[in-house]
Specification:
The chain is α+β, with helices and mostly antiparallel strands and 130 residues long. It is built from two helices and five strands. It has a domain of 68 residues. A three-stranded antiparallel beta sheet has the order 2-1-5, with no helix packed on it. Strands 3-4 form a two-stranded antiparallel ribbon. Strand 3 and strand 4 form a beta hairpin. Helix 1 packs across helix 2. The chain is globular and about 50 Å long.
Length: 130
């Protein structure tokens, strides 16, 4: 709903507390933000239930979002198991992490890179008025 989006667009909707071990301060921000320069919607969300503080005005919206994300509605869930030799290059998307066990004879190789700019060609398409 529009109210849920508005609540989660507050610049103080969620705070991830400081991590003294990593010398990282509190991180406060919105779940949803919009960049008019490239017409992109950004979502910064964590599904954690501890080490997160929700602003009182965003707490119920966060619970509704959690319920939406926990559904099994396959119309917006993509699942794929990477095979040997495959990789994935994408703009960051909501994802889960499941347990992985390396085969002692076939260890996995994992590269991860973070870029500040979105991948070109993945920007929303311009549409013409109908």
């Amino acid at each position: 709903s529009a109210g849920m989006v508005a609540a989660l667009s507050r610049p103080d909707s969620m705070t991830i507390p400081a991590n003294a071990d990593d010398a990282r301060p509190d991180q406060t921000g919105s779940v949803f933000s919009y960049d008019p320069r490239d017409n992109s919607l950004h979502m910064r969300y964590t599904h954690r239930t501890h080490s997160i503080t929700w602003h009182a005005g965003a707490r119920s919206a966060a619970l509704r979002l959690r319920a939406i994300l926990e559904t099994e509605d396959v119309s917006y869930i993509f699942r794929h198991r990477l095979e040997s030799g495959q990789g994935l290059i994408c703009n960051n998307v909501l994802h889960t992490r499941t347990a992985f066990r390396d085969d002692p004879h076939h260890r996995r190789l994992f590269y991860r890179a973070r870029f500040l700019e979105r991948i070109e060609g993945c920007r929303p398409r311009e549409t013409s008025p109908a």
